[in-house]
């Protein structure tokens, strides 16, 4: 191994180590890119419809998004917390009722499972004890809350910077590639922006529709805590595959407190809503989104959650969408589709033999033509 190769290898190792150490910052930066891409669609819409300058359109868009977020938190979060606390106290009772539902169910389930279900009665007390510990460790709680607020503020500031002047940041990114390939990278970045925008618009619309349909269905069925449950269903729509499965558990448990048939009706309701979302909403709303295979989606969520925690779980889909665009454009189209294997000696000899036979055949036909003319 030459000295240059060794130095290059060590430089790659050091760069990967540094990137791993700042992975949290990189995830926050990517979150800012996602938000900037989504808000930029609103900016373009305001520029086209209202003929505003980009600066004014950005100011209106960012102010509107912040006002909507603050209003949503102020109007929805307090009652949601109150209903969620009631939900926590009612879920153990519902699970206990499952074990006492019928004699055949008691015989069907293992004894240790029945005891575990009964042990869930202390969930409320355990939660209260956990809350007491949090209060006692107020400094640690304050530090964690401050960290979340600072990270959120960082994402907001970077998002505004990217919206205000996106061109310099794109140029810096393009400098990482050879000069002959930069125009191609611009095209790939444009496709990434289109796919991210389509994904963001589609997922927000789907979350709203799922929350509304779930709320209407739960109100018609008379299930307790409809607001908390429908908000939970809408929020968990952000996480495909796992979200719909998790969102049906609390309302089904609430329904068991009233009647077993109501719990079955809740499960059927959620299955129907998810089928509508998967087969109708997603194909119509996300036409611009890069289609992701279900297995790839699930594995990407698990992998990013293991390596990067809760932030990686929520950013798994947009990261996968962008990564799929880059792999498709660079690895598939620019490398694999243009890959031509070198001909071996046998194919070369065969080609030469075929060309020689063709020349001899052409000469014979020419001689026959000349003899025919004579």
TrEMBL record:
InterPro entries: AI-2E-like. It comes from the Bacteria. It holds the Pfam family AI-2E_transport. Belongs to the autoinducer-2 exporter (AI-2E) (TC 2.A.86) family. The chain crosses the membrane at residues 25-46, 58-81, 141-164, 196-220, 226-249, 261-282, 302-327. Its main location: membrane. One of its GO terms (biological process) is transmembrane transport. It is a multi-pass membrane protein. One of its GO terms (cellular component) is membrane. This is AI-2E family transporter. PANTHER family: TRANSMEMBRANE PROTEIN (PTHR21716), TRANSPORT PROTEIN YDBI-RELATED (PTHR21716:SF62). It is found in: Membrane. Residues 344-374 are annotated as: Disordered. Residues 352-374 have a biased composition (Basic and acidic residues). Keywords: Membrane, Transmembrane, Transmembrane helix.
